[in-house]
Write a structure and sequence with these properties.
Length: about 240
């Protein structure tokens, strides 16, 4: 399992942005161009490039061979490579992605003040009671731990918010995280990664204890790595 985290520590130059657009499919370019805010376009482009970077660096892909289709609830997949799974997430100025040989989901959220309207959406009644017993600092951390764990799970299943976050119950004992849906245990494995200050990053896998390789980049570092790698991996423009 390979995880890549990119910190958008500066604005992506327009010339560089257009240069990097050549490495994604025309369909993806069209979606990116529909964003009104440049930061949203940058996040979307980086998410795609992260997966391509990992696939070419660690799984022997050539960039021009990477084409996605979408499952019922919109999750992209590689139709010619059903044994390769991936997922992306972004929050604030971070974009993260993961690739694995088992179904996997990843979610990152910037830790902020908990908004009451989100607690009813995301927490079960029991979890909400636990939240209310905590002080403000503990409450914020507790909420975003549960939020990202649940998000990583529904992203791993590919069902998205159709699952209903408040139907999922998280419990932890001896460092292990467990999840139940509608009171029934679900077989999934979780990891909370403490590698980005001020953010909560959670991972869900359907494989127990997979080996994890985690790399973090500043924006320009990542762009240079991508350009070098995708050129070497026959990553010419995708038409």
């Amino acid at each position: 399992m390979h995880i890549c985290c990119v910190h958008i520590d500066q604005t992506l130059d327009e010339t560089v942005f257009q240069e990097m657009m050549q490495y994604v499919t025309p369909e993806k370019r069209a979606r990116i161009q529909r964003f009104r805010k440049p930061i949203d376009a940058t996040r979307s482009l980086l998410g795609d490039l992260i997966i391509r970077f990992i696939l070419c660096r660690h799984y022997g892909f050539h960039n021009h061979e990477i084409h996605y289709e979408h499952q019922e609830f919109g999750k992209p997949y590689l139709p010619k490579h059903p044994d390769v799974h991936f997922n992306i997430s972004h929050s604030g100025d971070w974009v993260v992605g993961v690739v694995s040989t088992h179904p996997v989901g990843i979610d990152i959220e910037k830790i902020t003040e908990v908004k009451e309207n989100l607690t009813s959406l995301a927490l079960t009644a029991e979890e909400h009671q636990q939240l209310q017993r905590l002080n403000e600092t503990e409450r914020n951390l507790f909420f975003f731990e549960l939020w990202t764990l649940k998000e990583s799970y529904i992203k791993a299943t590919g069902k998205g918010l159709s699952e209903g976050l408040n139907t999922l119950q998280i419990s932890r004992d001896n460092g292990n995280t467990h999840i139940e849906k509608d009171g029934k245990p679900v077989l999934a494995y979780f990891k909370m990664l403490k590698c980005i200050e001020g953010h909560q990053l959670s991972l869900c896998s359907f494989s127990e204890n997979p080996e994890k390789d985690v790399r973090s980049f500043l924006l320009n570092e990542f762009i240079e790595e991508v350009k070098s790698l995708l050129r070497m991996s026959k990553g010419q423009s995708i038409h």
